[in-house]
Write a structure and sequence with these properties.
single chain; about 600 residues; ABC transporter transmembrane region fold; Rossmann fold; four-stranded antiparallel β-sheet; 19 helices; 10 strands; disordered N terminus; AAA+_ATPase; ATP binding; ABC-type oligopeptide transporter activity
Length: about 600
């Protein structure tokens, strides 16, 4: 899975690929999609009216032509100009209404897709972090873009066609029956052949179009991951291997796409062949019936046109079937995300008088069942105390923070805030109490001021500057082109890692939280800057409960208590001096770092 940029803390399963999803229930997808048309009732009603009038004009034109031919055959030339005027008027009206039908269909499709994308975006924001960690971000982006675009295309191009098709079938059937029942029956025989051919080919197409959408989502996920990790790819000279993997996946998509498009493109020629066969039948039997005196020559000409009009909606729908199948597959992929259970938001607000006392009571947690990450973890952190979590990679330090933030829910035990179970509080209210500074800084492609004020919407310029000064970020901000109004390109890619870290620290300063979490917050700055930041962080941490995740043990010597973790358990705890004297796991870690070896 692609690396997640926006989430502050993530679990160990972010590289797990989501299971392949298939759009199997077309009827359910259609009914679900129809719900989005309710908000566009007036556009749907207007489109229906335009289609109905255009169909009436299209159906009446051959009738006028039939009357004109019969008038010429009967040498009644006085009627011909009037009849032709009506016929040309019907054709002109039909053409004008088709133009407006296209414009209205486009507006309708974009409006519906806007609502669909809004729902999907809000849903993604409300999904639990566990879901986002387990699903490729590129695949989620594909649902937001490619799948939604496919739905929009079908709505704009085929919705009016389907309305018109139904009305054309009804209208032409009524007119043909009024002319000749036997000729109508012959036309229906060819229509049955069209339907059977469409059904057979559609069954072959469905599987390949679903598979193509799934492969497209996987390919997008890979591209997003590789673009994010481009420095790592280049650092290890893996360009050739990455390209080979991309080509392999692209080849699979190409082969599946060729199969799907080949079958889809065959529908048009097959339908045209059946339509031409219908034309021959109508012409031969029409001539025979005319010789018998059962119908007129004008009726034959009308039937040749109606036979085309009768099969045209089926032909058009058949040619659009590939797009419709793709859109339904995409719709079901979108609805699969919308149907995911969102993060539970119920709970009461955290009191403003909260002190910040935290207690973990016999907490157990597993990312994957039967593989426990946190095992019977108990720890009490007094309000305003500074606690450091240390241990080898995978010992569970970051997971403890994930559980405190309710990014994940514990399997057993309790986490108390001032003696109250945090599960009784709304997650959003709980997180407002917490300020986080991560090792991997997350910035947005916006102004420096926006990035700093992200932790406190509506912050004044004075508050922003004060936070920057506290974090020692004001010096380099003053040298930016527009200072605080400088727009960061590519989420701050033009800044150094240390400068991005300073902005993240300033953002936490502005939040003024009751609980502060530092995940190796000074890892990307030089020693001199680190000293200045430590002074600033000391002032920031005053009278606040602080939880520090550290690998550089030299930065936590003044912590009130150091917690040494191993495999989700506390194996040692105490102050720095006491743990050094104890000659246990902490001293081993400290001496290893002091010797310059990797811990």
């Amino acid at each position: 899975m692609a690396k997640k940029q926006a989430a502050p803390l993530i679990g160990p399963h972010r590289h797990m690929r989501a299971p392949v999803e298939h759009a199997m229930d077309r009827k359910a997808a259609c009914l679900r999609l129809m719900q989005y048309f309710r908000a566009e009732r007036w556009r749907v009603a207007l489109l229906t009216l335009i289609v109905a009038v255009s169909v009436a004009a299209g159906v009446s034109a051959p009738v006028f032509m039939s009357w004109a031919i019969d008038a010429i055959t009967a040498a009644d030339y006085d009627k011909v100009p009037g009849i032709l005027s009506w016929m040309f008027g019907a054709c002109a009206l039909y053409a004008v209404l088709l133009f407006f039908q296209g414009r209205l269909s486009a507006r309708l499709s974009q409006s519906i897709i806007r609502h669909l994308r809004k729902d999907l975006f809000e849903k993604i924001n409300g999904l639990p972090l566990a879901y986002l960690d387990r699903h490729p971000h590129g695949d989620l982006m594909s649902r937001m873009t490619n799948d939604a675009d496919n739905i929009a295309t079908v709505i704009s191009t085929s919705l009016g066609t389907m309305f018109a098709g139904i009305l054309f079938l009804l209208g032409t059937t009524a007119v043909m029956l009024s002319f000749s029942v036997p000729m109508t029956a012959l036309t229906y025989l060819t229509a049955v052949a069209t339907v059977l051919a469409t059904k057979y080919i559609a069954a072959k197409m469905g599987r390949y179009f679903r598979e193509r959408q799934d492969l497209l989502g996987q390919l997008n996920s890979m591209v997003e991951e590789q673009v994010t990790a481009v420095r790592t790819v280049k650092a290890y000279a893996r360009e050739a291997q990455v390209a080979a993997k991309f080509v392999q996946m692209a080849d699979s998509l190409t082969k599946t796409g060729i199969r799907a498009e080949s079958i889809g493109s065959s529908m048009g020629p097959i339908m045209n062949t059946i339509s031409n066969f219908s034309f021959v039948i109508v012409s031969v039997f029409g001539a025979y019936f005319a010789l018998k005196g059962w119908i007129t020559v004008g009726v034959i000409s009308a039937f040749t046109i109606y036979s085309k009009q009768f099969s045209r909606p089926i032909n058009e729908l058949a040619q659009l079937y590939g797009q419709i199948e793709t859109a339904l597959a995409g719709a079901e992929r979108i609805f699969a995300v919308l149907d995911e259970p969102g993060e539970r938001q119920e709970g009461r607000e955290v009191p403003e008088t909260v002190k910040g006392e935290i207690e973990f009571c016999h907490v157990n947690f597993s990312y994957v069942p039967e593989k426990r990450v946190i095992d019977d973890f108990s720890l009490k952190i007094g309000a305003g105390r500074k606690i450091a979590l240390v241990g080898a990679t995978g010992s569970g330090k970051t997971t403890i923070v994930n559980l405190l933030m309710r990014f994940y829910e514990i399997d057993a035990g309790k986490i108390l805030l001032d003696g109250q179970d945090i599960r009784t509080y709304a997650p959003g209210s709980l997180r407002k109490l917490v300020g986080i500074v991560l090792q991997d800084t997350v910035l947005f492609s916006d102004t420096v001021r926006y990035n700093l004020a992200y932790a406190k919407p509506g912050a004044t310029m004075e508050e922003v500057k004060r936070a920057a000064e506290l974090a020692h970020a004001d010096d380099f901000i003053a040298h930016l082109p527009q200072q605080y109004e400088t727009v960061l390109q590519s989420a701050g890619a033009e800044l150094s890692a240390g400068q991005r870290q300073l902005l993240a620290i300033a953002r936490a300063c502005l939040a003024s939280p009751r609980i502060l979490i530092l995940d190796e917050a000074t890892s990307n700055v030089d020693t001199r800057t680190e000293t200045r930041i430590q002074d600033a962080m000391t002032r920031l941490m005053h009278d606040r409960t602080c939880l520090i995740i550290a690998h550089r043990l030299s930065t936590i010597r003044d912590a009130d208590e150091i917690i040494v973790m191993d495999h989700g358990r506390i194996v040692e705890q105490g102050r720095h001096e006491d743990l050094i004297e104890h000659n246990g796991p902490y001293r081993a870690l400290y001496e290893t770092q002091f010797a310059g070896q990797e811990s």
